[in-house]
Amino acid sequence: MDSSQRRGDAFAEFMFGRKPEAPSSKKETSTAQKLTDLTANIDLDQLFTHVDSIMNIYSQFKPAIKQLSPVIQLFKKKK
Asked: What pTM was estimated for this model as a whole?
């Protein structure tokens, strides 16, 4: 590399900033490995059981929530 090319690179770096480095495959592998480690500890059957029970509770309380919403709207209007 001759001096004029270096000077051009320095000028381009000054004007436009450094070029982004190419993503390393090692970093991507470590991220994928971390994701795999996190999902390995999740029991999906238990998770879906909990989601189902939450949805059942919501459906049981839905009529009460509908009855309370006009009262809540009154408080919002007074502010």
From this structure: 0.44
